[in-house]
């Protein structure tokens, strides 16, 4: 279900959006916002893991390095 929302855009962003066909504007904004939300959630998760790692003296690598190692092992 789609939700209609009002947002305030900078003039520069609005000018760029006007170059996108009307039917595609919502999809473009939705895709950009979804990407931003995913990156923000990942950044928060990595910060939390780094905080946990800082409390645990046994871990010597960053949360990012540990996550990459775990992904390669599967």
Describe the structure.
The protein is mainly α and 74 residues long. It has a domain at 23-72. It is 70% helix and 0% strand. The radius of gyration is 19 Å and the shape is elongated. The two termini are 35 Å apart. 0% of the residues are buried.
Number of helices: 3
Shape: elongated
Overall average residue pLDDT: 90
Task: Report how far apart the termini are.
Answer: 35 Å
Rg over CA atoms: 19 Å
Main sheet, how many strands, which sense, barrel? none
Structural class: mainly alpha
SSE series: HHH
State the total count of DSSP E strands.
0
Helix content: over 70%
**Uncertain residue segments:** none
Question: Which percent range describes the beta-strand content?
Answer: under 5%
What does this entry show, briefly?
The protein has three helices and no strands. The chain has 74 residues and is mainly alpha-helical.
Secondary-structure topology with pairs:
Elements lengths: L10 H8 L3 H34 L7 H10 L2
Notable features of this structure?
74 residues, mainly alpha
